[in-house]
From TrEMBL:
Coiled coil: none annotated. It comes from the Bacteria. It holds the Pfam family SpoIIE. This is Anti-sigma regulatory factor (Ser/Thr protein kinase). SUPFAM superfamilies: ATPase domain of HSP90 chaperone/DNA topoisomerase II/histidine kinase, PP2C-like. It comes from Deinobacterium chartae. CDD domains: HATPase_RsbT-like.
Length: 334
């Protein structure tokens, strides 16, 4: 099954039902059984209701997941409302600040295979809830992504991929030039090329992508390998893919080289940094502004990767381009 992403705007109560119906249709398309499909419907209904009642409206982003033959649906709820001051209290089943039955976030957490929440007073709220059709084993890496096309288009000119291996991970984000079908074709070609790379050397991998993209309109991309045994991350980037390593003591931005894969590139250079425990590697296309600093979001580095991606998308999306942000962290236990 190809990964699917859907965005559901929720600004008023009439859109709660629309989100629930869209979630039910997505679950059916993914082959969900009756019980998890029902759980997903309740999760989406509660998240959408909270957006209207407490967040001043917001966005739900649904993404399909695959692991060990199992299928899941991840839902991000994003708002820029007043935030939550008593998080532990609102996660209790039965608690409500809006005079409702109070199922809310407590029910969402109970019905979800994976749940996380980040909120700041006057800084909005982000909620992650995933429902699986079955019980896959926990992945070795925590990978989160928001990847959406140019507003109004069906396909994106961005693409991304993460390949896990023993003691490491191999990651790519690519942005095909422009928008629409031709950009999408370039990004898909890069994704196929990445899947076929034998060596996990970022510089040589970049040249392989360059050769295989000559038949397309071209793209920009970044390739990174996190090697836990060596305790380092290596990266090569061509063009304006923004790559940041966030560590407990701060963040470092990786430099990129000018050029366009498939057209003209310089000899790729590799950059390396130590990888301390508790770090995260974040890549995004220019559909997001690169002016963010995770230090302004206390505690967010310790939340799930998808929640980090969702917060960055919510606060820094440009809204006039394809937009992709991918976050890679160690440890995927749900």
């Amino acid at each position: 099954m190809t990964e699917l992403s859907q965005v559901w705007a929720v600004q008023e109560s009439s859109e709660v039902g629309a989100a629930r119906r869209a979630a039910a249709a997505l679950a059916q398309r993914c082959g969900f059984e009756t019980v998890p499909a029902g759980q997903l419907a309740i999760v989406v209904t509660e998240l959408a209701s909270n957006l209207v009642k407490h967040g001043g409206g917001g966005t739900l982003i649904a993404r399909t997941l695959r692991l060990e033959g199992k299928v899941g649906i991840e839902v991000l709820s994003l708002d820029q409302g007043p935030g939550i001051s008593e998080i532990a209290r609102v996660l209790q089943d039965g608690y409500s600040t809006a005079g409702t039955a109070g199922n809310g976030l407590g029910a969402v957490r109970r019905l979800s295979s994976d749940f996380d929440l980040y909120s700041r007073p006057a800084g909005g709220t982000a909620v992650l809830a995933t429902v699986w059709n079955g019980s896959p084993p926990p992945p070795a890496w925590d990978v989160g992504a928001v990847a959406l096309p140019y507003p109004g288009l069906e396909v994106s000119g961005d693409s991304w991929a993460v390949r896990e291996y023993l003691q490491g991970a191999w990651m790519m984000v690519v942005d095909g030039l422009g928008h629409g079908l031709a950009a999408h074709a370039a990004a898909e070609s890069a994704e196929r090329a990445f899947a076929g790379l034998v060596s996990r050397d970022p510089a040589s991998g970049m040249m392989a992508l360059h050769r295989l993209l000559r038949a397309t309109r071209g793209a920009v991309a970044a390739l990174a390998e996190v090697d836990l045994q060596a305790g380092r991350v290596r990266l090569a980037g061509v063009g304006n893919i923004h790559t940041v390593m966030v560590r407990p003591d701060g963040q470092r931005i990786f430099p990129n080289q000018n050029g366009t894969l498939g057209q003209q590139v310089p000899e790729p250079r590799e950059f390396a940094l130590p990888w301390p425990q508790g770090s995260a590697l974040i890549m995004h296309s220019d559909g997001l502004r690169g002016s963010w600093n995770l230090a302004r979001y206390p505690g967010l580095l310790h939340r799930r990767a998808a929640l980090i991606a969702g917060v960055l998308y919510r606060d820094f999306v440009r809204g006039r381009d394809d937009a992709t942000v991918v976050v890679l962290k160690e440890g995927g236990a749900r």
